[in-house]
Design a protein that fits this description.
The structure is a homodimer of 219-residue chains. The first copy, chain A, has two domains: 63 residues, Winged helix-like DNA-binding domain superfamily/Winged helix DNA-binding domain (Arc Repressor Mutant, subunit A), CATH 1.10.10.10; 136 residues, Four Helix Bundle (Hemerythrin (Met), subunit A). In chain A, strands 1-3-2 form a three-stranded antiparallel beta sheet. The N and C termini of chain A lie far apart (43 Å). The longest helix of chain A has 23 residues. In chain A, helix 5 packs antiparallel against helix 6 and helix 6 packs antiparallel against helix 7. Chain A is globular. Chain A has nine helices and three strands, in the order αβααββαααααα. At the A-B interface, helix 3, helix 4 and helix 7 of A face helix 3, helix 4 and helix 7 of B. Chain B binds a DNA duplex (30 and 30 nucleotides) through helix 3.
DNA sequence: CTGTGGCGTATGCTCAACAGTTAACACCGC
DNA sequence: GCGGTGTTAACTGTTGAGCATACGCCACAG
């Protein structure tokens, strides 16, 4: 593996900016900051106990992730997703993950990848009766792992840029739609397709999975 | 500075941050700021005549676009792309544009889209004997237009996030590889496939186009 | 009912400063 | 000369105060 960054002591000291970023992301994707809500810099900086300057850097990042939308005079508000936007997000997601699956299918040795993905599925199954949050987390882990295993940093980065929007989509519509089945079977199908190296099958499986997921959310 | 704030028709006044963003993007993709070069905030802020705070906001955005890479202590440097990374970037690009083409293929009325794309190709042909910069510009316009025409904002946003990396790839390897043919014919093929609604053909055409483009760059 | 001027608010941007961390370099004893 | 050591300079991370501007709101006059 290309362990460029030394793990050192396992504890990476995060800058205040990164902490604020995480906190805001969580607040948004958890619904604490409801869609449409206006964000006031001074309020947030006081709330997070950081300066306005540092906060603004974090806000720029969230804006580019698509979690915030900019109003007329730079006024930020939590992005509101409608049904079409959710479908659009999942379309892009499907395209990225299809590329991931295809890339994995073309690997000469897929053993390690298969094992990693099955481990991720095991975590999903273990969380089947857990909280909604846990199920979302393990589900996202599976898909992020798939992208990471390709070794394509750009692909992983693109997917991670979309992750916030995906979580917002689930949060936005997933709650009143009741408990959703995260489709462990589907994930097994995807891994199976990768195992046999059938890129085409993997692609259609992922696309079906995404279409169905989007349908569940906006139905 | 400005005496009367006359609202210039059609021209949106860009914030200093956005101006700095554009300036830096151009400086990087033009090679003025060479790959690997360390960026010093105080230098840049003085160069661009903006404060450090405002500059840092722009830098965060460039970092997320993948044009800058962060060193150990937050030290930023212009990202250096190797052959594999260029191929990876073009793989993701192909995946996104394939989705765009497929989406356009599924439109009930593709007339407007076809016309827009042909106009973009015309611009490319008009720039055939122009500067390298002009040819790159018109080429990017075509592909950006294709993404925009889908009406999928997320897709467009993802593509635009990749645009800087694409330009860097071309700049990085395109110059010493000599004048490249931007492949007007290929673009005609793509539009033709969209016109007939053949999503599969459009997909393979785009992928071939991208593979070939990447090969040209890293060969 | 209308418009108009003031006031509060929030963003865009700047400046000055300090802490903490590295890298560079000069220095010193051996 | 050489290894260890101190000192310093360079940068980033972060803060706080502060100013200009633009927008919305509201009272008040017409």
């Amino acid at each position: 593996m290309a362990g460029a960054t030394a793990p050192l002591l396992g504890l990476e000291k995060k800058s205040l900016r990164e902490q604020a970023l995480s906190a805001l992301r969580t607040a948004i994707t958890s619904g604490e900051l409801a869609p449409g809500r206006h964000l006031v810099e001074t309020e947030l900086s006081e709330m997070l106990q950081i300066s306005r300057g540092t906060l603004r850097e974090a806000l720029r990042q969230l804006e580019q992730e698509g979690l915030l939308s900019a109003g007329p005079r730079g006024r930020l508000s939590v992005r509101h997703l409608d049904a079409k936007e959710i479908r659009d997000i999942f379309s892009v997601r499907a395209a990225l993950e299809s590329l991931a699956a295809r890339t994995l299918c073309e690997l000469p040795d897929r053993e390690y990848a298969i094992r990693s993905l099955r481990t991720a599925i095991d975590a999903m199954e273990a969380a089947t009766h857990g909280t909604l949050e846990e199920r979302i987390e393990t589900d996202m882990d599976f898909h992020r792992t798939m992208c990471r295993l390709t070794g394509n940093e750009t692909l992983l980065h693109s997917w991670e840029s979309l992750e916030g929007s995906i979580r917002m989509s689930i949060m936005f519509a997933g709650l009143d739609k009741g408990v959703r089945n995260m489709g462990v079977d589907r994930h097994h199908d995807i891994v199976a397709a990768i195992e046999t190296g059938d890129a085409s099958l993997a692609r259609t499986t992922i696309r079906d999975h995404m279409d169905q997921a989007a349908d569940n959310l906006v139905a």
